[in-house]
Amino acid sequence: MDISKRIAEMKRQPGFKDNVGMILIHNGVVRNWSRKDKKKVIALEVTPDLAKIESIRQEFLKREGIYDIVAEALTGRFQPGDDLLYLIVAGDIRENIKPVLAELLDRVKSEAVHKKEIMAE
Question: For 39-60, what is the mean pLDDT?
Answer without folding.
Answer: 97
